[in-house]
Amino acid sequence: MSWGFLCDLLSGVNEYSTGIGRIWVTVVFIFRLLLYVAAAKNTWKYKHDEFECNIRQPGCENVCYDHFFPVSHIRFWALQLIVVSTPSLLVVFHVAYRENREKRHKQKLYRGPGETDGGLLCTYLVSLILKTGLEIVFLVLFYKLYNGFHVPRLVKCDIRPCPSTVDCYISKPTEKTIFLYFLAGTSCLCIVLNLSELSYLIFK
């Protein structure tokens, strides 16, 4: 997967952001995108192969793995990054509309580039509300899917076709738990930054 489009999108919106918005973009780039590509992806790369149960009953291990990991962490975070960044497209489309309108009228209709006013300000506020809402939805969804942000060393499974309650072991649980807390923390930081920027723009 190429992240070039996402980087270009966020860089373009950065031109119209406040100081708080630029901090948000930095957090997304450094603490979420780069961490995902450089470290987290490798930590969960072979998690299915490293998930072991103390029984060789055909199908038991796969069923238990699917129960405790219903969605791949990697795909979930990738989807979260894309979806949370998507509201920024509203700002990009609005800027493109303004530029196209100025070309058609062959005169300057708006303030200088990089300035947020009028309709663009409303679009920017809507994008902030959407980003904040989506961050919260993904945090709650992740918490519900995995029963929290802690990865246990041992899980007990009694789902058919397992003949009885079996012990299943998850590899590197401490490392995975640290990553989960860090990624949840950066998500919460992004929510705080979005709310701070929203408040700043409204009261300004």
UniProtKB/TrEMBL annotation:
The Connexin N-terminal domain, residue ranges: 42-75
Molecular function per GO: gap junction channel activity
Cited InterPro entries: Connexin, Connexin_CCC, Connexin_CS, Connexin_N, Connexin_N_sf
Topological type in the membrane: Multi-pass membrane protein
Statement: the UniProt record of this protein carries the keyword Membrane: yes
Annotated GO biological process: cell-cell signaling
Cellular compartments annotated: Cell junction, Gap junction; Cell membrane
Domain of life assignment: Eukaryota
Pfam short name (any one): Connexin
Connexin cysteine-rich domain sequence ranges: 134-201
PROSITE patterns: CONNEXINS_2
Transmembrane segments: 20-39, 76-97, 118-143, 178-203
Keywords: Cell junction, Cell membrane, Gap junction, Membrane, Transmembrane, Transmembrane helix
Cellular component annotations (GO), alphabetically ordered: connexin complex
Role: One gap junction consists of a cluster of closely packed pairs of transmembrane channels, the connexons, through which materials of low MW diffuse from one cell to a neighboring cell.
Subunit structure: A connexon is composed of a hexamer of connexins.
Membership in a protein family: Belongs to the connexin family.
UniProt protein name: Gap junction protein
Species for this entry: Eurypyga helias
